[in-house]
Design a protein that fits this description.
Elements lengths: L2 E6 L6 H10 L5 E7 L10 H11 L7 E6 L3 H7 L4 E6 L2 H17 L4 E6 L9 H9 L10 H10 L5
Parallel strand pairs: 1-2, 1-4, 2-3, 4-5
The structure holds adenosine-5'-diphosphate.
Adenosine-5'-diphosphate (ADP) binds next to α1 and β4.
Length: 162
């Protein structure tokens, strides 16, 4: 069983994240979408909301995609889940510096865990959780950016102005 861990904030999960998970399922037996518990970062959705929403979005995949929260070092969480792959997405060159730093740091912490990058698909390369939050906050249409389940949740947080 090859399990990949896909760590992030997922505030909220976007079509870009979904695309990475779906493509990863052709390479790995299962993907754990791991939501970082970062009390220092103010989030729109609580940790448990984010985990529950991700689980809803991937309900059809059953045990192949699980959503979990974690705190502390990612490599420790990966080991606890018997996962030897860290999965990350790359949108643009601007993602590269930070991602390279993290991948090298994680390798030095545990050389048995490999980081695998998937290039964002063209259609989603401009999609980020922060763009989604901004568009939703000002009443814009997010239907092309996030799964239907998230559109619903954002509509509850930001009811359309009459
Ligand atoms: P973080 O705070 O760790 O960057 P995010 O939830 O923003 O968490 O992103 C999690 C991962 O998903 C990162 O590897 C990020 O590069 C990737 N990602 C975000 N948006 C997209 C997208 N549109 N297409 C592909 N990968 C993406």
């Amino acid at each position: 069983m090859r399990t990949a861990i896909f760590p992030g904030s997922f505030d909220p999960i976007t079509n870009g994240h979904v695309d990475v998970v779906v493509r990863a399922l052709s390479m790995f037996d299962s993907v754990i979408v791991a939501v970082l518990n970062n009390p220092e970062k103010k989030s729109m959705f609580t940790l448990s909301e984010r985990v529950a929403l991700i689980q809803d979005v991937f309900a059809a995949e059953g045990q192949r995609v699980l959503a979990k929260s974690f705190s502390g070092l990612l490599v420790d969480f990966a080991r606890s889940q018997n996962a030897s792959i860290i999965l990350r997405g790359l949108r643009a060159i601007s993602d590269f510096d930070y991602e390279a730093q993290m991948a090298l740091m994680n390798r030095s912490l545990d050389p048995n865990i490999e980081t695998v990058f998937l290039m964002a698909s063209e259609a989603n390369s401009y999609v980020s959780s922060s763009i989604v939050r901004q568009v939703a906050r000002f009443g814009g249409d997010v239907r092309r950016l996030v799964p239907a389940r998230i559109v619903e949740e954002l509509a509850k947080k930001f009811p359309a102005k009459k």
